[in-house]
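Q: What does the assembly look like in three dimensions?
Context provided by user:
Components: two
Sequences:
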Amino acid sequence: MTDQPSSPKKPSSHGAIPGLLKGLATTARTLSRPTHTAEYPDAQPSLPPRTRGVIALLEENCTNCMLCARECPDWCIYIDSHKETLPATTEGGRERQRNVLDRFAIDFSLCMYCGICIEVCPFDALHWSPEFEYAEVNVLDLLHEKGKLGQWMSTVPPPSALDPNSAEPQEITAVNKPARKAPEERP
Amino acid sequence: MLEVVLRSVSVLLAFLVLPLAVGQTEHKVMAHMQGRLGPMYAGGFHGWAQLVADGAKFVQKEDIVPQAADRWVFKLAPGVALVPYLVALSVIPLSATVVAADVSASVLFVLAASAVGILGLLMAGWSSANKYALLGGMRAAAQLLSYELPLALSVASVALAAGTLSLTGIAQAWSPLWLVWQLPGAFVFLIAAVAELQRPPFDMPVADSEIVMGPFTEYTGLRFAFFLLSEYAGIVVMSLLFTVLFLGGWRGPFSDSMGPLWTILKGLVIAIVIIWVRVSWPRLREDQLQRLAWLVLVPLALAQLALTAGVVVLTS
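A: Here is the predicted structure of the complete assembly.
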Protein backbone atom coordinates (compact mmCIF):
# COMPACT_ATOMS: atom_id res chain seq x y z
CA MET A 1 0.00 0.00 0.00
CA THR A 2 1.30 3.38 -0.96
CA ASP A 3 -1.43 5.63 0.54
CA GLN A 4 -2.21 6.12 4.21
CA PRO A 5 -2.19 2.86 6.13
CA SER A 6 -5.56 3.62 7.75
CA SER A 7 -7.54 3.76 4.51
CA PRO A 8 -8.80 0.43 3.16
CA LYS A 9 -6.82 -0.95 0.26
CA LYS A 10 -8.32 0.14 -3.02
CA PRO A 11 -8.37 -2.33 -5.87
CA SER A 12 -5.72 -1.31 -8.36
CA SER A 13 -6.95 0.27 -11.55
CA HIS A 14 -4.45 -1.55 -13.76
CA GLY A 15 -6.97 -4.18 -14.81
CA ALA A 16 -6.66 -7.94 -14.59
CA ILE A 17 -3.54 -8.53 -16.66
CA PRO A 18 -0.81 -7.46 -14.14
CA GLY A 19 -2.44 -9.57 -11.45
CA LEU A 20 -2.61 -12.60 -13.72
CA LEU A 21 1.04 -12.20 -14.69
CA LYS A 22 1.98 -11.80 -11.04
CA GLY A 23 0.20 -15.06 -10.25
CA LEU A 24 2.10 -16.87 -12.98
CA ALA A 25 5.39 -15.40 -11.75
CA THR A 26 4.72 -16.44 -8.17
CA THR A 27 4.00 -20.07 -9.04
CA ALA A 28 6.99 -20.21 -11.38
CA ARG A 29 9.25 -18.83 -8.65
CA THR A 30 7.96 -21.40 -6.18
CA LEU A 31 8.55 -24.14 -8.76
CA SER A 32 12.21 -23.14 -9.05
CA ARG A 33 12.82 -23.24 -5.31
CA PRO A 34 13.30 -26.26 -3.03
CA THR A 35 10.14 -27.48 -1.34
CA HIS A 36 9.48 -27.19 2.38
CA THR A 37 8.18 -30.73 2.76
CA ALA A 38 9.80 -32.85 5.46
CA GLU A 39 9.27 -36.50 4.57
CA TYR A 40 8.42 -37.48 8.11
CA PRO A 41 8.56 -41.25 8.43
CA ASP A 42 11.81 -41.26 6.44
CA ALA A 43 13.30 -38.18 8.06
CA GLN A 44 12.80 -37.33 11.71
CA PRO A 45 11.56 -33.81 12.39
CA SER A 46 13.93 -31.47 14.21
CA LEU A 47 11.88 -30.47 17.23
CA PRO A 48 12.65 -27.62 19.60
CA PRO A 49 14.07 -28.92 22.90
CA ARG A 50 11.06 -27.89 25.00
CA THR A 51 8.56 -29.64 22.73
CA ARG A 52 5.53 -30.90 24.63
CA GLY A 53 5.47 -34.43 23.32
CA VAL A 54 4.63 -36.63 26.28
CA ILE A 55 4.75 -36.44 30.09
CA ALA A 56 7.44 -38.58 31.73
CA LEU A 57 7.49 -39.68 35.39
CA LEU A 58 10.55 -39.87 37.63
CA GLU A 59 9.11 -42.29 40.15
CA GLU A 60 11.71 -41.75 42.91
CA ASN A 61 10.74 -38.10 43.21
CA CYS A 62 7.02 -38.77 43.61
CA THR A 63 5.65 -38.41 47.13
CA ASN A 64 2.05 -39.33 46.28
CA CYS A 65 0.98 -35.85 47.27
CA MET A 66 -1.80 -35.97 44.65
CA LEU A 67 -1.33 -32.32 43.70
CA CYS A 68 -1.01 -33.18 40.01
CA ALA A 69 -4.11 -35.38 40.03
CA ARG A 70 -6.12 -32.68 41.77
CA GLU A 71 -4.95 -29.86 39.51
CA CYS A 72 -5.43 -31.79 36.28
CA PRO A 73 -8.26 -30.01 34.40
CA ASP A 74 -9.59 -33.17 32.83
CA TRP A 75 -8.75 -35.63 35.58
CA CYS A 76 -6.60 -37.88 33.50
CA ILE A 77 -4.07 -38.79 36.21
CA TYR A 78 -4.64 -41.87 38.37
CA ILE A 79 -2.69 -42.29 41.59
CA ASP A 80 -3.02 -45.17 44.08
CA SER A 81 -0.80 -45.47 47.12
CA HIS A 82 -0.63 -47.09 50.51
CA LYS A 83 1.20 -46.49 53.74
CA GLU A 84 4.04 -48.75 54.75
CA THR A 85 5.42 -49.01 58.28
CA LEU A 86 9.18 -49.16 58.61
CA PRO A 87 10.53 -50.83 61.75
CA ALA A 88 12.60 -48.72 64.12
CA THR A 89 16.24 -48.51 63.15
CA THR A 90 17.51 -48.21 66.73
CA GLU A 91 16.58 -50.06 69.90
CA GLY A 92 13.50 -48.45 71.49
CA GLY A 93 13.11 -46.09 68.55
CA ARG A 94 9.90 -45.11 66.90
CA GLU A 95 8.42 -46.87 63.89
CA ARG A 96 8.27 -44.72 60.80
CA GLN A 97 5.61 -44.62 58.10
CA ARG A 98 6.04 -43.70 54.48
CA ASN A 99 3.91 -43.58 51.34
CA VAL A 100 4.47 -46.17 48.63
CA LEU A 101 3.32 -45.49 45.08
CA ASP A 102 1.17 -48.35 43.80
CA ARG A 103 -0.10 -46.87 40.61
CA PHE A 104 0.62 -43.75 38.61
CA ALA A 105 -1.09 -43.54 35.24
CA ILE A 106 -1.84 -40.80 32.73
CA ASP A 107 -4.64 -41.26 30.23
CA PHE A 108 -3.28 -39.59 27.11
CA SER A 109 -6.62 -39.96 25.38
CA LEU A 110 -7.92 -37.34 27.86
CA CYS A 111 -4.75 -35.32 28.47
CA MET A 112 -4.80 -31.91 26.82
CA TYR A 113 -1.08 -31.28 27.27
CA CYS A 114 -1.58 -28.17 29.38
CA GLY A 115 1.41 -29.07 31.57
CA ILE A 116 -0.22 -27.95 34.81
CA CYS A 117 0.74 -31.24 36.50
CA ILE A 118 4.37 -30.57 35.64
CA GLU A 119 4.18 -26.99 36.93
CA VAL A 120 2.50 -28.00 40.13
CA CYS A 121 4.73 -30.93 41.08
CA PRO A 122 6.77 -29.80 44.14
CA PHE A 123 9.52 -32.39 43.68
CA ASP A 124 10.05 -32.42 39.90
CA ALA A 125 8.67 -35.90 39.41
CA LEU A 126 6.96 -34.99 36.10
CA HIS A 127 8.80 -33.74 33.02
CA TRP A 128 8.05 -32.86 29.42
CA SER A 129 9.61 -35.21 26.89
CA PRO A 130 9.76 -34.41 23.16
CA GLU A 131 8.86 -38.02 22.33
CA PHE A 132 5.67 -38.04 20.21
CA GLU A 133 5.41 -41.38 18.42
CA TYR A 134 3.09 -43.21 20.81
CA ALA A 135 -0.09 -43.44 18.74
CA GLU A 136 -2.25 -46.51 19.33
CA VAL A 137 -4.84 -48.30 17.22
CA ASN A 138 -7.22 -48.53 20.16
CA VAL A 139 -7.89 -45.36 22.13
CA LEU A 140 -8.05 -47.35 25.36
CA ASP A 141 -4.39 -48.27 24.94
CA LEU A 142 -3.42 -44.64 25.52
CA LEU A 143 -3.72 -45.09 29.29
CA HIS A 144 -0.04 -45.42 30.24
CA GLU A 145 1.12 -46.78 33.61
CA LYS A 146 4.14 -45.71 35.60
CA GLY A 147 6.45 -48.24 33.94
CA LYS A 148 5.88 -46.73 30.51
CA LEU A 149 5.92 -43.17 31.90
CA GLY A 150 9.27 -43.95 33.54
CA GLN A 151 10.77 -45.20 30.28
CA TRP A 152 10.15 -41.80 28.73
CA MET A 153 12.42 -40.19 31.36
CA SER A 154 15.43 -41.16 29.24
CA THR A 155 14.16 -38.91 26.44
CA VAL A 156 13.77 -35.85 28.67
CA PRO A 157 16.40 -33.26 27.71
CA PRO A 158 18.62 -31.88 30.49
CA PRO A 159 17.46 -28.57 31.95
CA SER A 160 18.72 -25.56 30.11
CA ALA A 161 21.83 -23.83 31.42
CA LEU A 162 21.45 -20.95 33.86
CA ASP A 163 21.81 -17.37 32.71
CA PRO A 164 25.42 -16.10 32.75
CA ASN A 165 25.28 -13.93 35.91
CA SER A 166 22.59 -15.76 37.84
CA ALA A 167 23.00 -17.03 41.38
CA GLU A 168 24.34 -20.53 41.78
CA PRO A 169 21.88 -23.33 42.48
CA GLN A 170 21.05 -23.92 46.14
CA GLU A 171 22.86 -27.25 46.28
CA ILE A 172 26.14 -25.78 45.09
CA THR A 173 25.88 -22.79 47.44
CA ALA A 174 25.34 -25.17 50.34
CA VAL A 175 28.42 -27.23 49.49
CA ASN A 176 30.65 -24.19 49.04
CA LYS A 177 29.64 -22.59 52.36
CA PRO A 178 32.57 -22.47 54.81
CA ALA A 179 32.19 -24.92 57.69
CA ARG A 180 30.78 -23.55 60.97
CA LYS A 181 33.34 -22.47 63.44
CA ALA A 182 33.55 -24.35 66.74
CA PRO A 183 31.58 -22.68 69.61
CA GLU A 184 34.72 -21.86 71.70
CA GLU A 185 36.19 -19.85 68.83
CA ARG A 186 33.15 -17.58 68.77
CA PRO A 187 33.69 -14.13 70.16
CA MET B 1 -5.89 -55.09 -42.57
CA LEU B 2 -2.86 -55.68 -40.33
CA GLU B 3 -1.83 -52.09 -40.83
CA VAL B 4 -5.25 -50.84 -39.70
CA VAL B 5 -5.06 -52.97 -36.57
CA LEU B 6 -1.52 -51.77 -35.90
CA ARG B 7 -2.51 -48.13 -36.28
CA SER B 8 -5.56 -48.55 -34.04
CA VAL B 9 -3.52 -50.28 -31.35
CA SER B 10 -0.85 -47.60 -31.43
CA VAL B 11 -3.49 -44.84 -31.10
CA LEU B 12 -5.08 -46.70 -28.21
CA LEU B 13 -1.68 -47.07 -26.58
CA ALA B 14 -0.96 -43.36 -26.99
CA PHE B 15 -4.43 -42.64 -25.63
CA LEU B 16 -3.69 -44.68 -22.51
CA VAL B 17 -0.12 -43.50 -21.94
CA LEU B 18 -0.10 -39.80 -22.83
CA PRO B 19 -2.96 -38.71 -20.51
CA LEU B 20 -1.30 -40.56 -17.62
CA ALA B 21 1.98 -38.83 -18.41
CA VAL B 22 0.22 -35.47 -18.42
CA GLY B 23 -1.58 -36.37 -15.19
CA GLN B 24 1.67 -37.31 -13.48
CA THR B 25 3.26 -34.11 -14.76
CA GLU B 26 0.37 -32.20 -13.28
CA HIS B 27 0.79 -33.95 -9.92
CA LYS B 28 4.45 -33.06 -9.74
CA VAL B 29 4.43 -29.60 -11.34
CA MET B 30 1.43 -28.46 -9.30
CA ALA B 31 2.99 -29.79 -6.10
CA HIS B 32 6.28 -28.00 -6.68
CA MET B 33 4.50 -24.80 -7.66
CA GLN B 34 2.82 -24.95 -4.25
CA GLY B 35 6.05 -25.76 -2.39
CA ARG B 36 5.16 -29.46 -1.96
CA LEU B 37 6.72 -32.66 -3.23
CA GLY B 38 3.67 -34.43 -4.63
CA PRO B 39 3.45 -38.23 -4.77
CA MET B 40 6.73 -39.79 -3.61
CA TYR B 41 5.99 -43.42 -2.76
CA ALA B 42 4.05 -45.29 -5.47
CA GLY B 43 6.46 -47.11 -7.75
CA GLY B 44 9.54 -46.12 -5.80
CA PHE B 45 11.06 -43.35 -7.88
CA HIS B 46 9.33 -40.04 -7.10
CA GLY B 47 5.89 -41.68 -7.16
CA TRP B 48 5.93 -42.37 -10.90
CA ALA B 49 3.23 -45.06 -10.55
CA GLN B 50 0.79 -42.90 -8.59
CA LEU B 51 -1.80 -42.80 -11.37
CA VAL B 52 -1.47 -46.52 -11.99
CA ALA B 53 -2.17 -47.05 -8.29
CA ASP B 54 -5.11 -44.64 -8.53
CA GLY B 55 -6.46 -46.64 -11.45
CA ALA B 56 -6.14 -49.88 -9.48
CA LYS B 57 -8.05 -48.23 -6.65
CA PHE B 58 -10.82 -46.97 -8.94
CA VAL B 59 -11.31 -50.44 -10.43
CA GLN B 60 -11.95 -51.90 -6.98
CA LYS B 61 -14.62 -49.36 -6.06
CA GLU B 62 -18.28 -50.24 -6.11
CA ASP B 63 -20.11 -49.11 -9.23
CA ILE B 64 -23.14 -47.28 -7.85
CA VAL B 65 -26.10 -46.13 -9.95
CA PRO B 66 -28.52 -43.89 -8.01
CA GLN B 67 -32.03 -45.31 -7.74
CA ALA B 68 -33.68 -42.30 -9.39
CA ALA B 69 -31.07 -42.09 -12.13
CA ASP B 70 -31.79 -42.72 -15.77
CA ARG B 71 -29.87 -46.01 -15.81
CA TRP B 72 -28.77 -46.38 -19.40
CA VAL B 73 -27.95 -42.74 -19.99
CA PHE B 74 -26.10 -42.60 -16.68
CA LYS B 75 -24.00 -45.63 -17.56
CA LEU B 76 -23.32 -44.50 -21.10
CA ALA B 77 -22.24 -40.92 -20.29
CA PRO B 78 -18.58 -41.59 -19.32
CA GLY B 79 -18.01 -43.40 -22.59
CA VAL B 80 -19.60 -40.57 -24.57
CA ALA B 81 -17.28 -38.14 -22.81
CA LEU B 82 -14.16 -40.25 -23.33
CA VAL B 83 -14.37 -41.78 -26.79
CA PRO B 84 -14.52 -38.51 -28.82
CA TYR B 85 -11.03 -37.61 -27.62
CA LEU B 86 -9.78 -41.04 -28.69
CA VAL B 87 -11.30 -40.43 -32.13
CA ALA B 88 -9.83 -36.93 -32.27
CA LEU B 89 -6.39 -38.22 -31.29
CA SER B 90 -6.37 -40.64 -34.21
CA VAL B 91 -6.28 -37.89 -36.85
CA ILE B 92 -3.70 -35.61 -35.21
CA PRO B 93 -0.42 -35.97 -37.08
CA LEU B 94 2.82 -36.35 -35.13
CA SER B 95 4.77 -35.70 -38.32
CA ALA B 96 4.03 -35.47 -42.02
CA THR B 97 4.00 -39.26 -42.27
CA VAL B 98 3.22 -40.40 -38.71
CA VAL B 99 -0.55 -40.11 -38.50
CA ALA B 100 -2.96 -42.89 -37.63
CA ALA B 101 -5.75 -41.84 -40.00
CA ASP B 102 -4.98 -39.23 -42.65
CA VAL B 103 -8.33 -37.54 -43.25
CA SER B 104 -8.47 -34.72 -45.79
CA ALA B 105 -10.60 -32.35 -43.65
CA SER B 106 -9.05 -33.41 -40.37
CA VAL B 107 -9.43 -29.94 -38.76
CA LEU B 108 -13.19 -30.15 -39.11
CA PHE B 109 -13.10 -33.75 -37.93
CA VAL B 110 -11.18 -32.91 -34.74
CA LEU B 111 -13.47 -29.99 -33.87
CA ALA B 112 -16.59 -32.05 -34.53
CA ALA B 113 -15.33 -35.05 -32.56
CA SER B 114 -14.24 -33.06 -29.52
CA ALA B 115 -17.59 -31.22 -29.50
CA VAL B 116 -19.39 -34.55 -28.99
CA GLY B 117 -17.80 -34.73 -25.55
CA ILE B 118 -20.20 -32.01 -24.36
CA LEU B 119 -23.00 -34.49 -24.85
CA GLY B 120 -21.42 -36.85 -22.34
CA LEU B 121 -21.37 -34.14 -19.68
CA LEU B 122 -24.96 -33.12 -20.39
CA MET B 123 -26.05 -36.77 -20.25
CA ALA B 124 -24.21 -37.25 -16.95
CA GLY B 125 -25.69 -34.10 -15.47
CA TRP B 126 -29.24 -34.82 -16.52
CA SER B 127 -29.38 -38.53 -15.78
CA SER B 128 -27.89 -38.35 -12.28
CA ALA B 129 -31.16 -37.09 -10.75
CA ASN B 130 -29.13 -34.77 -8.54
CA LYS B 131 -29.51 -31.02 -8.41
CA TYR B 132 -25.76 -30.40 -8.24
CA ALA B 133 -25.20 -32.65 -11.21
CA LEU B 134 -27.94 -30.89 -13.13
CA LEU B 135 -26.56 -27.44 -12.31
CA GLY B 136 -23.11 -28.60 -13.34
CA GLY B 137 -24.42 -30.10 -16.56
CA MET B 138 -26.21 -26.87 -17.46
CA ARG B 139 -23.13 -24.80 -16.68
CA ALA B 140 -21.03 -27.16 -18.77
CA ALA B 141 -23.40 -26.90 -21.71
CA ALA B 142 -23.52 -23.09 -21.52
CA GLN B 143 -19.76 -22.81 -21.20
CA LEU B 144 -18.88 -25.29 -23.90
CA LEU B 145 -21.31 -23.74 -26.38
CA SER B 146 -19.89 -20.24 -25.78
CA TYR B 147 -16.29 -21.30 -26.13
CA GLU B 148 -16.87 -23.51 -29.14
CA LEU B 149 -17.31 -20.37 -31.27
CA PRO B 150 -13.98 -18.61 -30.55
CA LEU B 151 -12.24 -21.99 -30.82
CA ALA B 152 -13.71 -22.66 -34.25
CA LEU B 153 -13.04 -19.08 -35.41
CA SER B 154 -9.37 -19.18 -34.40
CA VAL B 155 -8.94 -22.53 -36.12
CA ALA B 156 -10.71 -21.14 -39.19
CA SER B 157 -8.15 -18.33 -39.32
CA VAL B 158 -5.27 -20.81 -39.43
CA ALA B 159 -7.03 -22.96 -42.02
CA LEU B 160 -7.60 -19.85 -44.12
CA ALA B 161 -3.95 -18.85 -43.86
CA ALA B 162 -2.80 -22.32 -44.89
CA GLY B 163 -5.47 -22.72 -47.54
CA THR B 164 -6.29 -26.24 -46.42
CA LEU B 165 -8.47 -28.07 -43.89
CA SER B 166 -5.95 -30.85 -43.39
CA LEU B 167 -3.89 -30.73 -40.20
CA THR B 168 -0.89 -32.12 -42.06
CA GLY B 169 -1.30 -29.46 -44.71
CA ILE B 170 -1.59 -26.67 -42.14
CA ALA B 171 1.60 -27.73 -40.38
CA GLN B 172 3.38 -27.92 -43.73
CA ALA B 173 2.21 -24.43 -44.71
CA TRP B 174 3.36 -23.07 -41.35
CA SER B 175 6.20 -20.58 -41.24
CA PRO B 176 7.81 -18.87 -38.23
CA LEU B 177 6.06 -15.66 -39.29
CA TRP B 178 2.79 -17.24 -38.12
CA LEU B 179 3.99 -16.86 -34.54
CA VAL B 180 3.53 -13.12 -35.02
CA TRP B 181 0.48 -12.57 -37.16
CA GLN B 182 -1.50 -15.56 -35.85
CA LEU B 183 -0.67 -14.69 -32.24
CA PRO B 184 -4.14 -13.34 -31.30
CA GLY B 185 -5.68 -16.47 -32.79
CA ALA B 186 -3.28 -18.69 -30.85
CA PHE B 187 -4.13 -16.81 -27.66
CA VAL B 188 -7.85 -17.22 -28.27
CA PHE B 189 -7.41 -20.90 -29.09
CA LEU B 190 -5.42 -21.63 -25.93
CA ILE B 191 -7.92 -19.87 -23.66
CA ALA B 192 -10.91 -21.45 -25.38
CA ALA B 193 -9.21 -24.86 -25.19
CA VAL B 194 -8.71 -24.56 -21.43
CA ALA B 195 -12.36 -23.52 -21.14
CA GLU B 196 -13.46 -26.47 -23.31
CA LEU B 197 -11.58 -28.79 -20.97
CA GLN B 198 -13.32 -27.15 -17.99
CA ARG B 199 -10.07 -26.79 -16.17
CA PRO B 200 -9.36 -23.98 -13.72
CA PRO B 201 -9.79 -21.04 -14.10
CA PHE B 202 -12.78 -22.20 -16.18
CA ASP B 203 -13.93 -25.03 -13.89
CA MET B 204 -17.30 -23.52 -13.05
CA PRO B 205 -19.20 -26.68 -14.15
CA VAL B 206 -17.31 -28.90 -11.70
CA ALA B 207 -16.58 -26.24 -9.07
CA ASP B 208 -16.20 -28.61 -6.15
CA SER B 209 -16.54 -25.91 -3.52
CA GLU B 210 -20.02 -24.92 -4.66
CA ILE B 211 -21.66 -27.77 -6.60
CA VAL B 212 -19.71 -30.75 -5.23
CA MET B 213 -18.32 -32.17 -8.49
CA GLY B 214 -20.91 -30.98 -11.00
CA PRO B 215 -22.01 -33.68 -13.45
CA PHE B 216 -19.63 -36.21 -11.84
CA THR B 217 -21.20 -35.95 -8.38
CA GLU B 218 -22.98 -39.30 -8.49
CA TYR B 219 -20.25 -41.24 -10.26
CA THR B 220 -18.03 -43.78 -8.56
CA GLY B 221 -15.22 -46.13 -9.44
CA LEU B 222 -14.28 -46.78 -13.01
CA ARG B 223 -16.93 -44.49 -14.53
CA PHE B 224 -15.64 -41.57 -12.48
CA ALA B 225 -12.11 -42.47 -13.55
CA PHE B 226 -13.25 -42.33 -17.19
CA PHE B 227 -14.37 -38.74 -16.70
CA LEU B 228 -11.01 -37.86 -15.16
CA LEU B 229 -9.21 -39.68 -17.95
CA SER B 230 -11.24 -37.77 -20.54
CA GLU B 231 -10.09 -34.49 -18.97
CA TYR B 232 -6.44 -35.47 -19.35
CA ALA B 233 -7.01 -36.98 -22.79
CA GLY B 234 -8.56 -33.61 -23.64
CA ILE B 235 -5.39 -31.83 -22.51
CA VAL B 236 -3.36 -34.13 -24.75
CA VAL B 237 -5.61 -33.56 -27.76
CA MET B 238 -5.77 -29.79 -27.29
CA SER B 239 -2.02 -29.44 -26.67
CA LEU B 240 -1.15 -31.48 -29.74
CA LEU B 241 -3.73 -29.58 -31.77
CA PHE B 242 -2.25 -26.27 -30.65
CA THR B 243 1.21 -27.53 -31.56
CA VAL B 244 0.15 -28.61 -35.04
CA LEU B 245 -1.94 -25.49 -35.76
CA PHE B 246 0.16 -22.70 -34.28
CA LEU B 247 3.66 -24.02 -33.55
CA GLY B 248 4.39 -25.85 -36.79
CA GLY B 249 4.08 -29.33 -35.29
CA TRP B 250 7.16 -31.38 -36.15
CA ARG B 251 9.28 -28.49 -37.39
CA GLY B 252 12.61 -28.03 -35.68
CA PRO B 253 16.22 -29.17 -35.97
CA PHE B 254 16.54 -32.69 -37.47
CA SER B 255 12.80 -32.72 -38.15
CA ASP B 256 13.28 -35.51 -40.71
CA SER B 257 14.25 -38.03 -38.04
CA MET B 258 12.94 -36.41 -34.87
CA GLY B 259 9.64 -35.03 -36.20
CA PRO B 260 7.21 -36.88 -33.86
CA LEU B 261 9.47 -36.12 -30.91
CA TRP B 262 9.28 -32.41 -31.65
CA THR B 263 5.48 -32.54 -31.83
CA ILE B 264 5.24 -34.35 -28.50
CA LEU B 265 7.81 -32.05 -26.88
CA LYS B 266 5.98 -28.90 -27.97
CA GLY B 267 2.70 -30.48 -26.90
CA LEU B 268 4.16 -31.20 -23.48
CA VAL B 269 5.20 -27.56 -23.11
CA ILE B 270 1.64 -26.46 -23.93
CA ALA B 271 0.27 -29.03 -21.47
CA ILE B 272 2.56 -27.59 -18.78
CA VAL B 273 1.28 -24.10 -19.61
CA ILE B 274 -2.29 -25.39 -19.12
CA ILE B 275 -1.26 -26.86 -15.75
CA TRP B 276 0.57 -23.65 -14.82
CA VAL B 277 -2.55 -21.58 -15.51
CA ARG B 278 -4.56 -23.92 -13.33
CA VAL B 279 -2.22 -23.48 -10.37
CA SER B 280 -1.91 -19.71 -10.70
CA TRP B 281 -5.36 -18.32 -11.36
CA PRO B 282 -8.61 -18.25 -9.41
CA ARG B 283 -11.88 -19.55 -10.82
CA LEU B 284 -13.98 -17.26 -13.02
CA ARG B 285 -17.55 -16.61 -11.97
CA GLU B 286 -20.25 -17.77 -14.38
CA ASP B 287 -21.01 -14.25 -15.69
CA GLN B 288 -17.32 -13.33 -15.99
CA LEU B 289 -16.83 -16.52 -17.92
CA GLN B 290 -19.54 -15.71 -20.46
CA ARG B 291 -18.38 -12.10 -20.65
CA LEU B 292 -14.85 -13.20 -21.49
CA ALA B 293 -16.09 -15.51 -24.21
CA TRP B 294 -18.51 -13.13 -25.94
CA LEU B 295 -16.93 -9.72 -25.34
CA VAL B 296 -13.22 -10.55 -25.59
CA LEU B 297 -12.54 -13.84 -27.33
CA VAL B 298 -15.16 -13.76 -30.07
CA PRO B 299 -14.31 -10.18 -31.24
CA LEU B 300 -10.61 -11.01 -31.03
CA ALA B 301 -11.09 -14.17 -33.06
CA LEU B 302 -13.21 -12.29 -35.62
CA ALA B 303 -10.54 -9.59 -35.93
CA GLN B 304 -7.90 -12.28 -36.41
CA LEU B 305 -10.06 -13.92 -39.07
CA ALA B 306 -10.47 -10.57 -40.88
CA LEU B 307 -6.73 -9.94 -40.70
CA THR B 308 -5.95 -13.39 -42.06
CA ALA B 309 -8.51 -13.02 -44.83
CA GLY B 310 -7.04 -9.64 -45.79
CA VAL B 311 -3.49 -10.94 -45.87
CA VAL B 312 -4.51 -14.03 -47.85
CA VAL B 313 -6.39 -11.94 -50.44
CA LEU B 314 -3.57 -9.42 -50.78
CA THR B 315 -0.77 -11.97 -51.11
CA SER B 316 -2.45 -14.44 -53.45
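Follow-up: The two ends of chain A are 79 Å apart (CA to CA).
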